[in-house]
Write a structure and sequence with these properties.
The complex is a heterotetramer of chains A (315), B (271), C (544) and D (492). Chain A is built from 13 helices and no strands. Chain A is mostly helical. In chain A, helix 5 crosses helix 8, helix 8 packs across helix 10 and helix 10 runs antiparallel to helix 13. The longest helix of chain A is centred in the first third of the chain and has 36 residues. The radius of gyration of chain A is 24 Å and the shape is globular. Chain C is globular. Chain C has 2 domains: 249 residues, 3-Layer(aba) Sandwich (Rossmann fold), CATH 3.40.50; 260 residues, P-loop containing nucleotide triphosphate hydrolases (Rossmann fold, 3-Layer(aba) Sandwich). The chains are: A mainly alpha (315), B mainly alpha (271), C alpha/beta (544), D alpha+beta (492).
Amino acid sequence: MIHYLFKRCLILLATLIVASLVVFVTIEVVPGDPASFMLGLNAQPDTVNALRAELGLDQSRLQRYLSWAGGLLKGDFGISYTYRTPVVDMVRDRLGVSLPLAMYALLLSVLIAFPAGVLAASRRGGVGDTAIMGVTQLGLAIPNFWFAMLLVLLFAIKLTWFSAGGFPGWDSGFFVAMKSLTLPAIALALPQASILTRVMRSSLLDVLNEDFMRTARAKGLSKRAALWKHALRNAMIPVLTILGLQFSFLLAGAIIIENVFFLPGLGRLIFQSIASRDLIVVESVVMLLVFAVVLVTFMVDLAYAWVDPRLRGAR
Amino acid sequence: MKLRNILPGTLLVFLFFSAALISYLWTPFDVALIDIKARFKSPDTINWLGTDHFGRDMLSMLMVGARTSIAVAIVAVGIGMLFGVPLGLTAAAKRGSWLDELIMRANDLVFAFPALLIAIMITAVYGPGAVNAIIAIGIFNIPVFARLSRGAALSIWKRDFIQAAKVSGKGAVRISSEHILPNITNLLIVQGTIQFSLGILAEAGLSFVGLGTQPPIPSWGRMLADSQTLIYTEPQLALYPGLAIVLTVLGLNLLGDGLRDWLDPRLRHDR
Amino acid sequence: MIDKVLAKPLLKLTDVSLQIHGTPILKRINLELLAGKVLGIIGESGSGKSMTAFSILQLLPEGSDLSGVIEFDGHTLTDMQETRLCELRGNAIGMVFQEPMTALNPVQSIGQQVAESIRLHQAVSKKMAWQQAAVVLERVGLPNDEFPLSRFPHELSGGQRQRVVIAIAVALKPQLLIADEPTTALDVTTQSEILHLLKKLVQEENMALIFITHDLAVVADVADDIAIMRDGEVLESGSTERVFRELSHPYSQALLGASLHVPERISASIAPAPLLDVKDLVCEYPMPRQRLFGLKPVFRAVNKISFTIAPGESVGLVGESGCGKSTLSRALLGILPVQGGRVMLAGHSIHTSQALTHEVRRKMQVVFQDPYSSFNPRHKVARLIAEPLFVLQQTPTRAQQKTMVLESLQRVGLEAQDADKYIHEFSGGQRQRIAIARAIINKPELIVLDEAVSALDVSVRAQILDLLAALANDHGLSYLFISHDLSVVRNITDRVLVMQHGEIVERGDTKTVFDSPQNSYTRALLAAVPRLSDSIAAQAAGFK
Amino acid sequence: MKSINIIPAAIAVLLLTSGAHAAKTDLVLGMQLEPPNLDPTGGAAAAIDEIVYANIFEGLTQFGADGSVNPALAESWEISEDGKRYTFTLQSGVKFHDGSAMDSEDVKFSLDRAGAEDSTNAQKQLFANIESVEVVDAQTVALNLKAADGNMLFNLAWGDAVIVAPETIGTAVTSPVGTGPFKFSNWVQGDQIVIEKNPDYWGEPVKLEKATFKFISEPTAAFAAIMAGDVDAFPVYPAPENLAQLEADPRFSVVLGSTEGETILSTNNKQAPLDDVRVRQAIAHAIDRSAIIDGAMFGYGTPIGSHFAPHNPAYVDLTAKSEYDPQKSKALLKEAGLEDGFTTTLKLPPPAYARRGGEIIASQLREVGINVEISNLEWAQWLEQVFKGKDYGLTIVSHTEPMDIGIYANPEYYFQYDNADFRALIENFNAESDPDKRMTLLKDAQTIIADDYVNGYLFQLAKTGVASSKLKGLWPNSPTQANDLTGVYWED
């Protein structure tokens, strides 16, 4: 196990280093100069150069990479070109929106998916199963930004139950904040829940066909009891995998939703930063997300071991 | 019973594919033709689905939009298979070797990047447009197929008939092409349809944020974006393209599931 | 005889018929079992013997339609509602399954799984149940100091797992124990251990036992009564000695004949120059690192093995699973790298640095155990059989190929039109014939038969053995006959090698080895094999 | 049924606590763009001025709602005969938000800093003419100019010329300290900026206690926000297509005004065949302004025939010079030897007027045989390729700086329009201080560029504001990019 962990950590580190290179290179070739963007139409060339110097854009690429990467190690993400504030602070604020949103959406999708998946699996081929599968098919097919538009139309504008978007901030009270995240969370959760339900169902069905389920029944366990006591835990591994993927997806993939609900989240930060060529922000945030993904995958692997004793020993 | 699963999907897919194909030869109206005076017409005998905010015929727009979405998705999936499958097969053939390790780590790396963001960055680097959208979507299809084919191939490599082939002196390449590939095509086809539908969603998403297909070529995603502000006054403009996307994706998914059952019952639970 | 008339049967099946999705599985089954007696149900795969068991437990797959009456201890199981059935299962009726590797929940400790079945039917505290579980496991031969309750299934061997399954089944001292091929998946030695365990338990607890198997020999000396099944019908049933004495039904006779079958073969005149010459062969596998740094430890699967096979000779290689015989075979075939020693085939080395010459490859072919995974399901038989032709320097023309394919098809007793079929259209036996056809198309001199008949039913197995013998006689083929089943090897080989822990522990003429084994392990092996002839003799003599 | 009724009730409670129903002394203002920072003397982004101008920062002079130049921190001034020395008398008792007093030293610092070599001020040229800034006494400061300049008072009214304090300028980017009636309170980046009343303001105190600028880039979101009552007003409402509906809604009033934004089809005057005036004229005649104004702006916007704002007294209507006449434009193309048309690029920045207008123009030009390849760019790319790189044929952009016809005098500017007469004219104009003469010069200037068809002149961007009907005192027009909230109040 130790050895396995050690190996994983090495891979994790390598991934991050390569990723940082990829990110830096990809982004540095983006055409468009932050300085001239900031100064606008009537800016004088010398003004622009002055600003470039101020931002350290006149250094060589290598210098910039090293100082940036070095900073990352120290947890210093650098100073935003446009906002002129430490990227760390911006990221912290944005995470304050994206992280809860992701968790909220994930929670919703789990709350929907688990019961639905179990029901569908246990009633395989029945009406319930068919209905649930139908709904998930629809959930998979609906583009979430379109779904979001419809949600706003109904709940914000027609019924005015929710505000159409924006984020009042946590200091305005937990419930107020959560409320403002509700519609986006629903929009995000729908497809995720659909996927999760299907995975849950199929992996449960796999397990239900296993010999040991027959053993359990032969012991005298009822169908239902056998499912809860023996099938569920065995069915968890694929579900965990998907959960991991979904979390990292939700953390970063909410861009469009964040735009529709004008939420100040990570995705939108990157989107804006790309538009304003605030390269250092883009680089740092993307790296952060990559790190998050790698970390989550790592944790999911550990969770496997927790679920399945067979994975505890070697590897 | 198998037919029941495949039929609705096939019908939907056929509907939109034929619409796309027809649009190459004929559309009710020229989608490049803008006539402001004729905008927001409600459906009638001339414009079956009415006209948009530029007075263009919605039906024609949808048909050409289908063409765009499908083309983008197909090529993207193609890229994914073209690179992914050989990579996966190689990794499986050389399982445990440094090459295998390298390929798989590279996959993880790509997986580690938030797809939509990279797509946005790519389009930011090389400018928005269908081609770059395709590349962006395609890149993220590669690891999907690489993993799938590696996993499937590994299970085939364990079978005795591979041993028999080795005894007959066949090499890894020959075995992969003769024995492995034919035995994983079903999986690939099924996954293909799924990735296809994801591709369509992705294209719609990119176009929706203005990084996908560029005007004047219509695309469902951009039609949605254009009609966004009008959804309250002219809801049908946002409704049609939305439905088009939903139905196409739905069709493809249904088709995928149907194929899954039909081609190989053993894959029914396969994910 | 008399008590049968008086005593009321514990279990009674009357006209039980079963259909699954419309296809008939059981046809009007009638069976009786008295308390404390042993009923052996014998049949080949697809005879419906397992489904009979599941019908009794009322654990049938979806789409099943059961008719007839099953009475157990005065209750009618067939119209009992689920809750009551749950009370019976595991409590009054216990069951043991064929596949111990998958019969246990991998994520629960063995203690949990045994204790669960106890707590299900008895109002006892967790602690109590845990203690009882410990006791039961002791009784099935898993002493707690060696096998603590906290063990997980994957930490146990097949035999040990089967013991756990048995423990679960007998934990509550059921009146009826159903054992469905409980030993088929196990090695001979383990098999006999499990058999003894079952016998012991049945006697101690005075349980009734239904013992389901495909192997006459296994039940012959266990069962009071025997039922022989085929295609969902009971062909004959009655007390064991009567059944064996009379064997009224031709199929039963065939079955018995098959399992005693000895294929006729003329043993080869040993030529001086060996065809295959193996010297100090060593094969090793790397194992996962134990410590962070340092080398990966290696597992030596084959340890300095030397032997020869003369042209036309048929040599048996016997050993239990994990003894390294499969590794050895793959090494001989040149599809596995070796770490030492050499393998010479007709004077050419197999493991030379440069790729094997076609000439050498041509001389050697293989037939594998599993007729289902031995063929690419996407290819037609013709192409499958033609595959070895790939090794010939100049690949023959289509026409030539066709004739060669047809030729070998005929030689293994298949029709010409079979060439255009896909593999899934054939039965297990036919598939092995096709495998042999593939093996002989190049007119090789040595064929490695890796458990080639182990997966087949006895009757089919007999036919395949005959075919192999015939081929050997006609073409002076040499066989390396790898098997865990000694009875097979006994009847078809000239010499036999007994393998254990990667080494050959005994070698010699088949007859001598079988009659007067020198090595202790060999003796154990032979002792473990149930001998039908003996048990029949015993039955006839009327004592057990 | 009951259970359903509970939900809205619960929500209503939340709504109350969430303060979505704002008390009547605070205001939530919707803006499409978030400022990158809050230092108007350091950054160019219009969004900066739209928050701080006249609210947080003040200059010596200041624009009024009608575009007039009024005294601000300078209560009065004198101009020497030769027009080269401006002497300003400062308001007394002005304090910065940090409590320090504002005096002529601060003025000198601010103007020197803005004009300095290494200055990153975006409108540096405004100060180019300043020879020196001279501190007469604490309340008096004098500007010595290199040459007489009629624009000086106008220039000093710009947001880039506001007065800042040396000790706080360092932190101005995130927490600006000025002399205005509001002081900076809080910035939730990506979401909102809050400013609050400055209790010890030197001038007339404002009625609002607190104002929040909420940043909503998506037009849809903007509509949703205003409909859902998240936002009280959108001074510049991004989606004209909704205005009709909003106007019909009694809760809102739509404020129509003019901006300084001349929206033009900028043309690369050095790129063939666009370097041929006949081709440019052909393009001009191929364009149907009304269709564009309808299609892109849903009717909001005034057609223009030159680079000049219609609401300006010096404006002359020259639209007739380029009326919609496809035949004529075909003829002109023939004359220029391009009867079977030609292909050029049309590079469009993000705003809706550009993207929509672009599509329409493309199809109109196609009618006369000119084939345009549209490519949509982000601002950064647009600046790189079009504005700096001059790698474009056509583009659409709205020039929102007031009185910026002077850009045509710069051959290096991205139109690459090079006309000596015009340059001379502008020089005279800059030197001239007599209003009437300036007026005529401006009219001539408009005519010259209209006759040269330098660019396709489309329309004056309308300022389409949407506000709660109870909200009063917002500027209808934007003579400069600003949201002056000093006069804003709620009517009960």
